Amino acid sequence: MSVVSQVILKADDELRYPSSGELMGIQKYLKTGIGRIRIAQTLSENDKKIVDQAQKQLFKKRPDYRAPGGNAYGQRQYNQCLRDYSWYLRLVTYGVLAGDKGPIEQSGLIGVKEMYNSLNVPIPGMIEAIRCLKDAALGLLSQEDAAQAAPYFDFIIQSMS
Q1: Domain residue limits, the chain
Q2: 100: pLDDT confidence band, cut at 50, 70 and 90?
Q3: What is the C-alpha to C-alpha distance for residues 110 and 62, in angstroms, rounded to an integer?
Q4: pLDDT of residue 11
Q5: Which of 91, 111, 89, 96 shows the shortest CA–CA distance to 160?
Q6: 61: three-class secondary structure by DSSP
Q7: How many Å is the Cα radius of gyration of the chain?
Q8: What's the 3-state SS for 85-147?
Q9: How close are the terminal C-alpha atoms of the chain, in Å?
Q10: How do residues 121-138 score in pLDDT, each as one tens digit?
Q11: 8 Å CB contact between 159 and 127
Q12: pTM value?
């Protein structure tokens, strides 16, 4: 949920107008809108490149994941890993656009550890995969944009830990 929606819902729940502090928060959110859109656009336009770079980085570090018996062994399992990479990257863009971690949590992190455990996917491997995804994505952004996007990747990593 965006900052604007949060302020409106909170004020409405309390039957009041938004406070001056809340309005200043909205103003800050709106001022950073162009940057948030730029980040989301860069990530979405480079999805395949980011995913490819991240998977190469991960499987170079952990070739056992692609070896027989590994969780990414075989074309089907490998494609599922790449699908998940792209999905997490998309979740990051949702968070960046909203200026809030709520969309990430609501759309993709509830029950994720339980799901991966039930599929016998090692959580440390998924955490390392998200780190590789983060490195690949942030490498395409300016230092300022990378600093703005990094906390969303970190939120996913922390949620999986």
Answers
A1: 1-31, 34-160
A2: confident
A3: 27
A4: 94
A5: 111
A6: helix
A7: 18
A8: HHHHHHHHHHHHHHCCCHHHHHHHHCCHHHHHHHCCCCHHHHHHHHHHHHHHHHCCCCHHHHH
A9: 24
A10: 778 888 999 999 999 999
A11: no
A12: 0.87
